[in-house]
């Protein structure tokens, strides 16, 4: 009887140990399967990231409280675009993997040689992590894995979120100005006095009335000048139209120097605070660069009659 009790007690202990072990293993597996950050890096340290597709890539660096195109002279990017991408990637969570072997990576386009996108995160030159993005299993879904790991996951993400063209990141309003106070052209100087603008220049324009319409068009076009794209291949500017403006705003410590060019194909602009050339609309070129003292003023009646007679003679 005593032996039977001993045997039953030992069996009970073994069963308890087995139950505890099973519970512990189950909890461990559950913990492993619980969602956790997919891109598990120190996000506070990220000050540069690179987005690529195997053919082209774009690099962005954080400086001066904003994200800049570090491979393009630190030109500004569209406000909020970089933050939105990083927030989406930071929010990605792991789930049950669709594959967990290295042999499966090619099938989901998540290898170094076969991928749709990659996003590499840096602190200075230190690589913090790299997300490899592959095929799509469905609408707004993509297969991804972290470099150095075998698990492949299906996450809510789109390729359009990860732009690899530098031009698409460029802030086209980077030449936008604060309040203008003066504009210096080849033969005139427009100076703001109170709420009005006055023309200063050579003797032939002293006392002439400003053409408020043309001056207004010029100020509006210059203040809100938008670039079309960054020029990557320098054009042939021999014989092109040319104008230079020196512009001051209420925020500028020194004048901003604009140089405008016009060819048969495009209109271009540079500004001394950016080491780059941009294309602009022909209409903006006409309103800004094509202006001179004569065009900015209301011509005396005698000059207008003479001009009309000249036009009449040319037509006849």
TrEMBL record:
Organism: Porticoccus litoralis
Origin superkingdom: Bacteria
Pfam families associated with the record: DUF4340
Name the record gives this protein: DUF4340 domain-containing protein
DUF4340 domain sequence ranges: 75-233
């Amino acid at each position: 009887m005593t032996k039977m009790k001993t045997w039953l007690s030992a069996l009970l202990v073994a069963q308890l140990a087995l139950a505890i072990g099973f519970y512990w293993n189950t909890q461990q597996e559950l913990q492993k399967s619980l969602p956790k950050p997919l891109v598990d890096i120190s996000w506070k340290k990220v000050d540069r990231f690179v987005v690529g597709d195997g053919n082209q890539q774009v690099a962005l660096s954080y400086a001066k409280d904003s994200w800049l195109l570090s491979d393009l002279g630190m030109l500004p990017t569209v406000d909020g675009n970089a933050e939105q991408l990083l927030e989406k990637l930071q929010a990605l969570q792991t789930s049950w993997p669709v594959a967990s072997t290295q042999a499966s990576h090619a099938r989901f386009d998540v290898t170094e040689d076969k991928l749709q996108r990659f996003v590499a995160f840096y602190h200075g030159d230190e690589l913090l992590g790299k997300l490899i993005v592959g095929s799509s299993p469905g609408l707004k879904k993509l297969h991804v894995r972290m470099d150095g790991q075998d698990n492949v996951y299906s996450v809510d993400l789109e390729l359009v979120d990860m732009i690899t063209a530098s031009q698409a990141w460029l802030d086209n309003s980077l030449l936008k100005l604060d309040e203008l106070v003066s504009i210096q052209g080849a033969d005139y100087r427009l100076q703001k006095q109170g709420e009005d603008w006055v023309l200063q220049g050579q003797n032939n324009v002293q006392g002439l009335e400003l053409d408020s319409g043309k001056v207004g068009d010029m100020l509006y076009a210059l203040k809100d000048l938008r670039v079309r794209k960054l020029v990557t291949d320098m054009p042939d500017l021999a014989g092109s139209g040319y104008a230079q403006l020196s512009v001051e705003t209420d925020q500028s410590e020194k004048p901003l120097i604009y140089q405008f060019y016009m060819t048969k194909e495009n209109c271009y602009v540079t500004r001394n605070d950016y080491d780059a050339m941009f294309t602009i609309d022909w209409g903006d070129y006409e309103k800004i660069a094509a202006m001179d003292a004569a065009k900015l003023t209301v011509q005396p009646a005698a000059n207008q009659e003479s001009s009309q007679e000249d036009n009449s003679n040319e037509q006849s």
